[in-house]
Amino acid sequence: MSHLSIRSFLKKEKITIIFGLIIFFYILGVHLIFEIEKNKSIYISFLYLFLFFMYICFLYFESNRDYIEETYIINKRDYKKIFEMKASPLSKALYEEIKENKVYRDEEERKREDVKKYLTIWTHQIKSPIFALKLLLKKDEINRLDCEKEIFEIEEYVGNILGYVRMNVDSTDYVFGRHDLDIIIRSVIRKYSIQFIGKNNSVDFSETKKIILTDAKWFSFLLEQIISNSIKYTENGKISIYLRDNELVIEDNGIGIMPEDLPRIFDAGYTGYNGRLEKKSTGLGLNLTKNIGKSLRITLRCESEVNVGTRIYINLKNILS
C-alpha cells in the first residue's frame, strides 16, 4: 500500500514548519538575552521543540491516513465518493487530477462511440453495392459499365473509412507544397468520369489558374467527397466547377437540400432527407470534408434550394500562393 512521502508532506506543510522553528528560536533567544538561567532556557526551548515535533508527526499521520484512503478510492475508481470528500490540500489536488482524467476518459469514450457508430453505418451501407455487384455478375450478359460503377462505389466506401481512420490518429501524413489547383481538379474529374456518364451528367469546369499551398492528396480527397455528393444527387444535369472571389465553387442542378437539413449537412453521421431517400448516404463524407478543411486551413459553406440545386463554397483565401 502506498504512503505519503515525507518529502511531499514537508513541502505541503513548509509554512507551518518554518513558523514553528521561528517560534523556537524566538523563545530560546528571549531567555538568553534576558539572562534567564541557561539550563531552564534550554529546557523550555527544547520542550517546545519536542511538542512541536509531536504535533508535526500528528499532522503527518493524519495526512497519510487521508492519502491512503483517497488513493484507495482512486484505485477503486469510486469517483463520486472522492468528489464528496471534505476538501483538503491533498484531496483538492487529487480531485483536480481525477477530474482531468475523467474528462480525458469521457472524450475517449465519446470517440469510441463515434467510431462504433460510423462502423455500424458504414458496414450497413457497403452491403448495397456488394449485393448489386453479385446480382450483376449472375446475369448471362454482364454489363461491364454497371459492374465498374458498383466497384467504384465500394472503393468510395473503403476510401471514406480509411480517411476517417487517418483523421483520428494523433499524427496525419500531411505534406504541404505548392500545387496547381486546375491539375488537382482535372484529376478528380477524371476519377469520377464513369459516375458522370452513369448519371448522364455533364461537367462545366472553368480554369482557375491558381497555385495553392496545400497537401495535394488530402485536398483531392476533400474535392472527391464534394463532387461525389453532387453526382449522387444529380441526374441528367450539370455540375459546374469555377472560382469566385477566392472561393472554389462546386455547383449542381440536382435535387437540392431541405432547408431544415442545410445547417447540419457537415455533422457526423447526419444524412438528412436526401440521404434517407437515396439510402446510400453514410453521413461520413461531408463531415470528413469539414475536418480535413480545418487541417488544410480552409473553410466550407453551402447554399441550396430544393429542386434547383446546391453550391458548395471552398474558401481558398488562406492557401492561395
UniProtKB/TrEMBL annotation:
It is an enzyme of class 2 (transferase). Its EC number is 2.7.13.3. The lineage of its organism: Bacteria, Bacillati, Bacillota, Tissierellia, Tissierellales. SMART domains: HATPase_c. Its main location: membrane. InterPro entries: BphY/WalK/GraS-like, HATPase_C_sf, HATPase_dom, His_kinase_dom. It is found in: Cell membrane. PANTHER family: HISTIDINE KINASE (PTHR45453:SF2), PHOSPHATE REGULON SENSOR PROTEIN PHOR (PTHR45453). This is histidine kinase.
